[in-house]
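Structure tokens please, single chain.
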Amino acid sequence: MEIHYYDSLPSTNTVLLQMSKKGAKAWTVVWTTDQTEGRGYAGNKWKAEKGKNIAVSILITNDLDYEELIFFNQWVCNCLCELLGNYVDDVYVKWPNDLIISNKKVCGVLIETHRSGNHMNIVTGIGLNINQTEFQGLPKAGSLATSSARIYEIAEILSGILTKLKDNYVQIQNKEWDFIRKTYNSKLFLKNKTCSFRIETNEFQGIIRLVDASGLLHVELKNGSIKSFNNKEIELIF
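Here you go.
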């Protein structure tokens, strides 16, 4: 791996996307502990305290189709769940790409791509709260530290992320989509539990059943019917 560390960056994904378009090699890594303009999924913002968390982006190049990126996203979440499970208990994935510990969001994944010939260049951005303990104005945010009352070595966590992705990449190479999706569903936050949801201004209750091969969330409604939703079409209230 070719690893680039920066004292501060607006966005690791933005920098690595630019590098990838200029011929950066696969498994090039950009990371910082001070990301000032972090971007989350679907335009959300990722805010983190300087020096206490990780923002890292990894360039992975392969021959995936755009439709297969759903499984790639699930694979990244699975890898992170597996890694963080070495430090704390009960790590879950909140559909589609947030990690939850102790009912708090501790990690988000942002995948951005561009094609070069037959190759898909995938920039995988990971924002992980590690040692931050105060989240003013963000009641749903947490960290490894708030979940376990201990302080972690940031470099150790970073090394673990990169090693886990490398070691498990054979699942992507072999296109083990069924295994990836089943693993993802096994760690799905609030699966098979009655939850509250919001669509625009309307709230309702339903039971999360699974995420299908198209990346849609299946929710069982009060009348027993199953309805599937795209992300941003529905909001989970927790």
